[in-house]
């Protein structure tokens, strides 16, 4: 709901203010960036993130991909680097596996999807179902659904 989003946004703004990144301007008039806060280089920010990111949520392969993708965004937008080449270097699926199969975020999404599909299928058990996964080629979602629907 919009009200819930407003509460969340206010929470994020307070966190940024407490961290010294923003300061409130007047009574609810807006927010200003804090120029006195020293800027962190993108390399330092990625190194800091990689050092504290829980591996269960952020597999190292995924963090490296996100860093490389962010650093080459201009070249991707200009068409000099293919986003697919970053995701599948030399045809390897290791980064796609990290993004779509590893990590608690992926597992939670696949489990939720498998439960939703199972609920639909269980409403019509006499029907013959055919499911097609469209994705990055890892079959991560299919594995979860097949495991859930297995007799």
From TrEMBL:
It comes from the Bacteria. This is Siderophore biosynthesis protein.
């Amino acid at each position: 709901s919009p009200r819930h989003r407003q509460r969340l946004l206010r929470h994020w703004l307070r966190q940024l203010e407490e961290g010294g990144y923003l300061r409130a301007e007047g009574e609810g008039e807006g927010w200003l960036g804090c120029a006195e806060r020293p800027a962190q280089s993108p390399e330092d920010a990625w190194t800091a993130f990689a050092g504290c990111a829980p591996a269960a949520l952020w597999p190292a392969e995924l963090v490296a991909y996100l860093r490389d993708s962010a650093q080459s965004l201009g070249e991707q937008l200009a068409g000099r680097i293919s986003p697919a080449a970053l995701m599948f270097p030399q045809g390897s699926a290791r980064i796609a596996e990290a993004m779509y199969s590893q990590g608690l975020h992926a597992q939670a999404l696949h489990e939720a999807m498998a439960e939703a599909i199972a609920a639909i299928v269980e409403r019509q058990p006499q029907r013959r179902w055919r499911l097609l996964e469209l994705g990055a080629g890892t079959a991560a979602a299919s594995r979860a659904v097949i495991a859930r629907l297995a007799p």
